[in-house]
Each structure stands twice: as C-alpha cells, then as structure tokens.
Amino acid sequence: MSKKINDKVLWVGKTDWELKKFHGDEFTTTQGSSYNSYLIKDEKTVLIDTVWLPYDREFVNDLKKEINLKDIDYIIIQHGEVDHSGALVELMNEIPNTPIYCTANGIKSLKGQYHKDWNFVPVKTGDKLNIGENTLTFIEAPMLHWPDTMFTYMEKENILFSNDGFGQHLASEYLYADEVDQSDLYRQALTYYANILAPFGMMVKNKINEILKMNLPIKMICPSHGLIWRKEPTQIVNKYLEWAENYQENQITIIYDTMWNSTRKMAEYIAKGVYKSDKEVQVKIMNTSKDDKTDVLTEVFKSKMIIVGSPTVNNGFLHSIAGILEMIKGMKLKNKKAVAFGSYGWSGESVKLITEELKKSGFEIINDGLKVMWTPSEDERIECIKFGEDLCSNK
Ligand code: FEO
User: 164 an active-site residue?
Assistant: First the structure.
C-alpha cells in the first residue's frame, strides 16, 4: 500500500515485519525492515528502486493500483543488491523497454544477477534528468556499501534518496523517523552502520563532505530501509560523520565462549577488575555462543577496548569466537585496543592465537593476555581482577 510523501512523491515499498535474518544469516533484524521504493509523478513518472525478490509480485500488483505501469518513463536503480532490485524481473516483464538509470557498476551488477539485456542508461555524478518541474541529479557513492551504489537528489523538492545510506532495519507503520521511538530508531541506525557501513568509514566521510560542499538544500532524506528523515535530516548526517571518525564510547566489551565455565568465570572477574578501576566505563559481557552476533558487532563498534576469551580446544579456540573474530576483522576498525584471555587444561594456545587474530584485525594489543589452568583458584580469581584493573590503567 502506498503512502504519500508530498504532491509529487509516493512511498511504494514493502514493510517486512517478519524479517529476522538479512544477508543470509549475517545480520539479525530483530525489528524487521522495509524495502523503500519511491514513485515520483511529475511531467515524467519515475520509479526509484524496487523491493526484495520474495515480494516482487506483491510489489508490482500494488504498483498497478497507483499507476498504469506503461506510464513509468524511467526506472532508477541506485544499487543492485537483491533487496532493492529483486522485483525488477517481474516489473520488466510488463514494461521491457523502460530505461533503467544506474551507474556503470550497477549495469554490471544487474546483468550479472538477472542476465537480462534491459535498456540500461549509465549515469555518473552530476548527470541530470529533467522530469518536469523537478530535476534529478545523480551522485555516485561507491562502496556505500557496494561499488554500484548511488544517491539521487531531487531538486525543488530538496529530497536526497540515499539508498542504504542513513537506513535502518526497522519495520514501522509510520513513514518518518520523528514518529517512532527514538531509542529504537537510533539503536537500529547504529546497528545498521556498525554491521554494514563500518568498513567504509573513510568513504562515508568523504562522500558526506562532498555532498555538503555541493550546498544542496536537503529537506528530507529518503533511505531504502526504514524511516525517512524529515525533521532536521542533518541529524543523521552528523551522526554518520561521528561514526565514521574511528568512533568509540567509554565502553569495554568482554566477549567470550566457554566449555565448563572457567573462561566465563575469568570474564566476570576481569569485568570486576575493570569496574573497580574505572567506575565510569560501561562494561559489557557477551557470550558469543548465546548472544546475537549482530549485537556483539554493534557493541564492539561502540567500544574503546575489547577483551576476548576462549578456552583452548584441540590446540585452537572455540568456533563461535573464531566466527566473531572473522566478522570483526571485516569491520576494519581503527583506534581500538584489545587483549585475550582463556582457560586451558594442558596445551593452552588459545590466548596467543586470539591475540594474533586481533592484531591482524588492526587492534592495538595491550599485553600478552591472561591464561588460567583448569578452573580459577582463589589466587587466580584475584589475578583476573588485577588483570582487569591494569587494563583500565592502560586506557
Ligand atoms: Fe539494502 Fe545493500 O542493500
């Protein structure tokens, strides 16, 4: 069902309340999401992006209630990932000659995925499309977060269509960011940034500064997921600039997995030591085999230091820690410290191996870490607390 944004622009996307996993199993979307598609009715009619493949028929049927599909003059695909381009095949079956405006990389991506020789029109930054009273300007935004990504700016209405940028996985009956619970909104915006855009912080910063230099009046930012930024839309732009600048809060996150609770006990003792030494720091403890990985990555993104623990198993460490370390490596975080810990029964390699992984991921390693044989004795409990205290003196 469509929602009116103004006299010229309609939201014609799909709200996906039941989405709980995104990017396969990589991103947990506890609050669902939306795939925002926009229909512009000026002298020309323009469709910006579509929706995820499972909703292709529903999308096209709903679109037919708004418009005769043959009246669509231009389709703009800002990014080829299937959550935005998924309904194209269904749509193009009905209007096969309609031009599709996208970047050169967008053409490669769409051809690679759908193997169709549609009427592609490549666009570059600064290219304009006059559609009547309004003109659309394209702004390439490579690696925000795919090489093909672009934004579209609608002059006169002063709307920036930003695709994944500034989005949130947050399903809502509302259309605008100012209408929903602000803690949900910002938690989801941050989670989205940390899990999708964090590796591209430098490009995020450069692209935003490039757009700011264009001095475009921006009345509204319409992303392709979640709520539209209508009230002071620069609030999310400023947040992105902050998050892109080696972001950290006064937080230390301890992430661990455990077999028989020795490493868990170490985690809790270390947390006590951190807290004993610094009453202001937020200490969070997460078990990677129980906590959600999307939440873990978000907390890692917020942290100034992470403390990573696993017992030694078969000369290595537990698979949930291996998985999360691989995901953390992909985030390409800077300006964060790390240290490892873990229990062992005989060989005890886990701490050294985790430390090596953390080093490869760009963390500043504080020290060689802490190992405890079997379960922590009373002396070792005190040693763990002292280890935590000393980490804070290293802040
Ligand atoms: Fe929302 Fe990169 O797709």
Answer: yes
User: How confident is the model over 18-50, as pLDDT tens digits?
Assistant: 999 999 999 999 999 999 999 999 999 999 999
Each residue of 1-18: b (16+ CB within 10 Å) or e? ebeebeebbbbbbbbbee
Q: Are 245 and 205 in contact (CB under 8 A)?
A: yes
DSSP 57-112: HHHHHHHHHHS-GGG--EEE-S--SHHHHTTHHHHHHHSTT--EEE-HHHHHHHHH
Q: Is 245 a catalytic residue?
A: no
Q: Are 49 and 79 in contact (CB under 8 A)?
A: yes
In the annotation, is 74 catalytic? Answer: no
User: Residue ranges of the alpha helices (H) in the chain?
Assistant: 56-66, 82-85, 88-94, 104-114, 182-192, 201-213, 234-243, 262-277, 293-302, 319-331, 350-360, 378-393
Q: What is the pLDDT of residue 395?
A: 52
> What is the dihedral sign for C-alpha 163, 169, 174, 179?
negative
- Closest CA to ligand 1's atom 2: 81
Give the C-alpha separation, 286 to 272, whole Å.
15
As given in the structure block, the two tokens for residue 204 are 């995020």
pTM equals 0.97
Find out whether the beta carbon of 79 lies less than 6 Å from any atom of ligand 1: yes
Residue 267 CA to ligand 1 center (angstroms) comes to 36
Separation of 81 CA from ligand 1 center, angstroms? 5
Where residue 374 falls (left for φ over 0; alpha for ψ -120 to 50; beta otherwise) is left
Closest CA to 86 of 236, 270, 224, 235: 224
Active-site residue, selected from the candidate residues 84, 225, 257, 380:
225
Distance 25 CA to ligand 1 centre (A): 15
| 3-state class (DSSP) for residue 334 | coil
Tell me which residue has tokens 């992909």. 330
